Amino acid sequence: MDWVPTTAHWGAYQAASDGNGGVRVRPRADDPAPSPLLGNVPEIARHSTRVQRPAVRRGWLSGGPGPSSRRGKDEFVEVDWDTAFTLVAAQLDRVRHESGNEAIYGGSYGWGSAGRFHHAQSQLHRFLNTIGGYTASRNNYSFGTSQVLLPHVVGSSAAVLGYADSWATVREHTDLIVAFGGLPTKNLSISPGGVTRHTSAAAAADPGMAVASISPLADDVPAGGRWYSIEPGTDVAMQLALAHTLLTEDLHDADFLERCCTGFDVFADYLLGASDGVPKTPEWAAGICGVEASEIRELARRMAAGRTLVTVTWSLQRTRGGEQPVWAGIALAAMLGQIGLPGGGFGHGYGSMADVGDVGPVLWLPTLPQGSNPVRAFIPVARVADMLLNPGAEFDYDGQRLTYPDIRLVHWAGGNPFHHHQDLNRLRRAFARPETVVVHETHWTATARHADVVLPATTSLEREDLGAGRRDTHLTAMHRVLDPVGEARDDFSILAGLAERLGVRQRFTQGRSARGWVEHLYDRWREQLLTQGHDVPDFDTFWAAGELRLPEVPEDPPLKRFRRDPERERLHTPSGRIELFSAEVDSFGYDDCPGHPAWLPQERRGPLHLIANQPPTRLHGQGDVGALSRESKVAGREPITLHPDDAAARGITEGAVVRVFNERGACLAGARLSNRVRPGVVVLPTGAWFDPQPDPERPGQDLCVHGNPNALTEDVGASRLSQGCAGQRSHVDVELFPGPLPEVQVHAPPPLHPA
Ligand SMILES: Nc1nc2c(c(=O)[nH]1)N[C@H]1C(S)=C(S)[C@@H](COP(=O)(O)OP(=O)(O)OC[C@H]3O[C@@H](n4cnc5c(=O)[nH]c(N)nc54)[C@H](O)[C@@H]3O)O[C@H]1N2
Ligand SMILES: Nc1nc2c(c(=O)[nH]1)N[C@H]1C(S)=C(S)[C@@H](COP(=O)(O)OP(=O)(O)OC[C@H]3O[C@@H](n4cnc5c(=O)[nH]c(N)nc54)[C@H](O)[C@@H]3O)O[C@H]1N2
Ligand SMILES: [Mo]
């Protein structure tokens, strides 16, 4: 058996054919914390839900393109590639000529698979650019709120997100980590593109210093950390009270605030209550966030006594008003005066992703050129359902008034909006609006089931590529391990086939095969590194070795430079400094994002807080049919964790199937009881494949029988500033489900008919 190197978003590993068409996997010998998600790989590679052949929705095939509420409910007819190419190319051509390229939505958000060349979204963007462009999306679901806020506060989002101190630096210099959102190690096997060795996961599991972990869940607390159990959505109140204590006890660094910040006077007036009559005292905060005033005061004093890293997980900004905990965290770090010092200041995403705190160089990696998009229209990524439902409507975004384009054709490759988007019942109505929906998928996900044309894509085990993630240490030669399933093709060949029908094959492929492109991207990258004086082997040597250690590049992070010389190394903010009050944000006049960090109380609409966080057993929806994910299910449903008191009040026992519901929707889930969640809080992670079926008890309504929390979340932007994803939390109630229990159908392929 030949073990070959490969990588995935859950990290590099080794794979071998099992001799029967399947795959065996094992971690790298030098990985200090291999990902448990490896356990899903053998099953997902060859699962019955793999898409085998191109398939077309019956109603679209017989009735032609047009809006249809049958999407997601119709049958599929399998066709050959020739027919599929003809059908899709004809619609791309018709739509761009009748309505312009703006009528094609190609944002195509989603993680797809690791691999620098076969990155589905990049492939699609390059293809659509060769035929005149598309309506694009901006920012991401992960930290889209921060991507818009941070430029106003520190001049760029990279200043914070791109240059986190390594875990080694934190261990050496930091006395106390104050972690809003905790340091959940379950998240740290993941980084986009993969990480070669899981050093962050190993470090976060045992940081070797004091950690104050502020979260509604004990599982977010690392070994030896102290759990501050907080009411969800109230971190800003606690942060303001910590700041209030620093100010009133004269523990703040007035010199740093004077030298490196602007607007502290406005923020201080707000803390003291001079501007709104409410002093943000620990007693005030305790009544909101549930952490005792004495504990807040004592924590503030400890923070001022040594080197302190204030860190905020990305989850805290993935919600209504999500700008505020990030901005307040920066204000708190600024008051401590340690921004730009090793192991001090502000961190964002320790506990969210493997690459935050990882050791690899910030380096340009081999990248597929996408060409340029002449279409100006775009949306902030999480406004997709709004766009499809409201063509021509206006909306706010970062000080601009923008208009939703009128989309006729949706083309998606490498993403699962019926996993990632909020209020999936509303998304179904939105997906009924376009004339044609084309999806490239490896598996029969809910998104594939809502398409008109499904084109079967290979997985990375079935092709060759180069793999590395942000701040990774190695470039992996991703060898092919398996033959493609059925008639599956890689996204590049699918798009080359469409390009051929549209007369632009040569422009799209530049005459190269997939392997030719992999070598070409490597050679271009190597040439650039050689001119910078790095020693990089030729392609054949690299491919045979299976990996390449990335060269060390010296770095001088923007905030460290700035701290040394704030006059010469000005930040790209209007003042050139850290803005604790932003006159620009203030001038936009948004009630949901004022000019300084503020406590914005949220209306509570339901007796229980729902936390829809990242799943410990898979990557989003990827791997839901794998062994690790399936074994975690309760009665075949996604587990929901409740506090025993909340369960008892509802007659719910361990292992019972429950109905989780609110005014937007409902799903089933399997009850797990634990006092590691705060009373009043339930946790239902994302990623159980959406399986809407008619609700036996509520005629006319759908019930996701499997447990996808996005049946319940609200489809709103974080604020008018960022329009970021707000899916992390919602309000729900839970009741016993009396049965009879509907079967989960989404883990089997839909009925497929011959043409
Ligand atoms: N309620 C709630 N919702 C959330 C979040 C939350 O906290 N709460 N988190 C959000 C976040 S941070 C994110 S990043 C999103 C993630 O949302 P997505 O990135 O959309 O989720 P994935 O399941 O990774 O979807 C990727 C899809 O690509 C397919 N795929 C894999 N490889 C290939 C390939 O080579 N070619 C093609 N064509 N397809 C391929 C996979 O089968 C999979 O269906 O979810 C968001 N949704
Ligand atoms: N295993 C696994 N790991 C992943 C992913 C995955 O799908 N699976 N996805 C990856 C991706 S794409 C991303 S963007 C990152 C996301 O990284 P994050 O967004 O940071 O991760 P989450 O797990 O959604 O949330 C982290 C914790 O925040 C806590 N939290 C929620 N609301 C509140 C609150 O109001 N206050 C406080 N103090 N805490 C709160 C929850 O208890 C939760 O466990 O994760 C990455 N890592
Ligand atoms: Mo994400």
UniProtKB/TrEMBL annotation:
Residues 1-73 are annotated as: Disordered. PROSITE patterns: MOLYBDOPTERIN_PROK_2, MOLYBDOPTERIN_PROK_3. It comes from the Bacteria. Residues 50-501 form the Molybdopterin oxidoreductase domain. Residues 6-44 form the Molybdopterin oxidoreductase N-terminal domain. Residues 608-725 form the Molybdopterin dinucleotide-binding domain. GO terms for cellular component: outer membrane-bounded periplasmic space. Signal peptide: none annotated. InterPro entries: Asp_de-COase-like_dom_sf, CT_DMSOR/BSOR/TMAOR, Molybdopterin_N, MoPterin_dinucl-bd_dom, Mopterin_OxRdtase, Mopterin_OxRdtase_prok_CS, Prok_Mopterin_Oxidored. One of its GO terms (molecular function) is molybdenum ion binding. One of its GO terms (biological process) is anaerobic respiration. Keywords: Metal-binding, Molybdenum, Oxidoreductase, Periplasm. It holds the Pfam family Molybdopterin. This is Molybdopterin oxidoreductase. It comes from Saccharopolyspora rhizosphaerae.
